[in-house]
Amino acid sequence: MIPAHRIDELTAARVAFVVATVVRAAKPTSVRPGDSALVFGDGTIEGFVGGVCAQESVRLQAARALETGEGVLLRLLPGLALTERDPLDGVIVSHNPCLSGGALEIFLDPQPVAPRIAIVGDTPIARSLAAIARAAGYDVGSELQADDTALVVASHGEDEEPALAAALEADVSYIALVASRKRGAAVLGSLDEALRSRVHTPAGLDIGARTPADIAISILAQLIAQRTVTPEAVAVETATDPICGMEVLASDATVHLDTVEGRVYFCCEGCRSAYVH
Asked: I need a surface site. Which of 200, 203, 216, 225 has the fewest CB within 10 A?
C-alpha cells in the first residue's frame, strides 16, 4: 500500500505520477490484488506490481496514461508481443512475451501536475478567481513560476506592467489583464509591440459578467477555451525489443544496452542476454 503522505509529498512538489494497483492476479504470480506502486514519467517505479517483465508494460502504459490524463485498465497476458484495445472502453490488452506467470490486471490512475495560475492582486475579482480556480482543480499562486499555465493581473493599476512583461518573456500560454478597454490599451502601450497582442484585455469571455464571481468565471472559461484549442503536445518515446518485438518505454529505467550504433532497449534481462550472445 502506498503511504498517503508520499502522495501528498509528490502533489505538493508538483510531480506527475501514476498510481498502479493490481486488481486481479491469476496464479502463478508473485503479486496479489491490492498491491500497488507509483510510476513516474521517466519509468521509475516505487512499489511492486509484478516482476521485471510486467514492469515494462506498466512503465509504457503509465507514461501514456500521463500523456492523456485518462485512467486505464491494463490486462497483461503471456504470449507473443502485441498490444491492443479491448472492445470495452478504457481497457488495454498487452500480450507480454516474457511473462512467465499468470494473467494480471492493473489499474493505472494518472495524477498529472495540476495546471497553475498566477493571480496578481488582492481585489474582489482576484479573490473570486482564486477560489473558483481552486475548486476547478487548479493550483493558484500570487507570483509567476516557470511552469505556470496562466497569469491574470487583477490589481487595479498596481505592478501591472512588470507582471505582464515577465509573463510575456516566460512565454506563458494565457495572459490576461483585468481592466477597462481604455485603461487596458494604455497599459499594453508600454509593452513590446510584437507581444502585446497576446494579452487578453478586458479579461474573460464576453458573457455580460458584472459581479466579481461572474467575471472570474468568464476568465477561467477563456483560459480553458485557449488550452483546449492549443493543448500541449507530449510525446512518449518508445522502442522495440529486437528479440521479442515488444514495445517498451525508451528510458533509463528500462533494460537497455549502449552500443556503437546507439542505445538498444529490451523488455527484460533475458532478451538483453539473448541479444548479446
From this structure: 225
